[in-house]
Amino acid sequence: MVLAKLFSRAKLRLGSGQTVSLQQLDAWLDVETAAFDTTAAKLAVAFASARAVVDVAGYRQHRQDTAETAVIADLPDVRGSHYQADLKRLPPMDRQEEFRMARRHDFLRTLVGVALRRSGLPKAGVPALLAGPVAAMRSALEALPPRRSAPRAWCLAVLDSFEALRNLYVEGSLYIVLGIANRYRGLGVDTADLIQEGNASLYQAIDGFSWRRDVRFRTYAQFWVQQAVLKVLYNHARTVRVPIWVQKVLGKVRRAQEAGRREGVELSHAEIAARIGVPVEKVEWVLNTRRYAVSLDAEVAGGDGATLVQMLPDESLEPIPESIPPGDLRAVMSEAMADLPDRERRILEARFGLQGHVPQTLGAIAKEYGITAERVRQLQNAALGRLKQPSTLRRLQAFVE
User: Fold this and answer.
1) Domain final residue, candidates 284, 313, 342
2) Distance (Å, rounded) from C-alpha 324 to C-alpha 399?
3) Number of domains composing the chain
4) Is there a contact between 178 and 75 (Cβ–Cβ < 8 Å)?
5) Are residues 11 and 160 in the same domain?
């Protein structure tokens, strides 16, 4: 009401290009909830007319200079990380600071909207830009031609203040993320990744939070952080991704089974379904999705050091029977041996029982030809050497296992 009277009496004076501290802005925004939107809109117009900006950097430095090392009772111990030490140097927001920061954020969002509209952006496109990142607003602003009603330098300074305030808003709430991320450590995702996703979700919490409901920002942000952490776990903790709703039902089933074991009973699927309030068919289907990943390098029990990968068939290799082209081995052998000298060919046939012959010993063949057994062995090796020539071997390769 005080600010409304100042506006009505035209006593509010903003110098050209004035830099307004956040403490002064808080005093101007100290109005009843019902009058806040109207007051913020009038104040944004006054800022635009005077080309005034908000000093967020000065307030940040003031907080760091006046605040001691943050000591938070529920701040968990994340060992092996410098993140916690850095976080303790950032002063957290109390209830009053959360309330003031939310009102500042609403005002600066209104001021950014005024700057974008005065820069020539269509009024219908401003809400969509305000719902997106500051980088998109900056790109849209730089794509517009300069206008006297909203100098480019002032508009960019307003965007910088808005972005700096959002970052300061997030920095004062980072301790919320650490407590939730610590609760889900050791579940398949690195703690640093959980913290990173939780920190990013604070921006979503800022955009959706309403201080008019008389609820702390911390209470509202905890929901967004937990959802972000759970989403990372659901998407990356398993080797094979399972839909989130399946994992939620599976968690309920697991808790029901543990409760039954504490009672000394092993619950059936129907009893589990009755406890968690879902159809028994869904319980059975969800339990069938529960699979466990096994390393291919794991040793097989009783396999004398053999690993699982060694026991699996290689699907890329064609089985031997299918790899042999259709053909007559006898005809191919006759064709391959046709180029051998007559005596060497007849010795091979007699020695290995080819072409219907009965296999004979070296001595029997030597007696038939009137030569020594050693000479028969030499002729046999010479014939086999001829068959190993590349041109001949290619014709016989398909029949060799």
Assistant:
1) 313
2) 7
3) 3
4) yes
5) yes
Between CA 26 and CA 100 the distance in angstroms is 7
Residues 295 and 165 in one domain: no
Residue type, 54: V
Name the pTM for this structure: 0.58
Q: Is 72:64 a contact under the CB 8 Å cutoff?
A: no
Which helix H or strand E contains 193, and what residues bound it? helix 191-208
Residue with tokens 């529960």: 290
Q: What is the pLDDT of residues 81-120, one digit of tens each?
A: 667 777 777 778 888 888 988 999 999 999 988 888 888 8
Q: What is the CATH number of the domain that holds 395?
A: 1.10.10.10
pLDDT digits (tens, 9 = 90+) for 190-237: 778 888 888 999 998 998 888 888 888 889 999 999 888 888 877 776
Domain final residue pick, 285, 313, 341: 313
The dihedral of CA 271, 277, 282, 286: what is its sign? Answer: negative
Question: Whole domain around residue 355: which residue ranges?
Answer: 327-399
Q: Any residues with CB less than 8 A from the CB of 282 and at least 6 apart, and which?
A: 249, 273
Q: 260 and 121 in one domain?
A: no
Q: Are residues 359 and 279 in the same domain?
A: no
What torsion, rounded to 10 degrees, do the Cα atoms 54, 58, 64, 65 define? -140
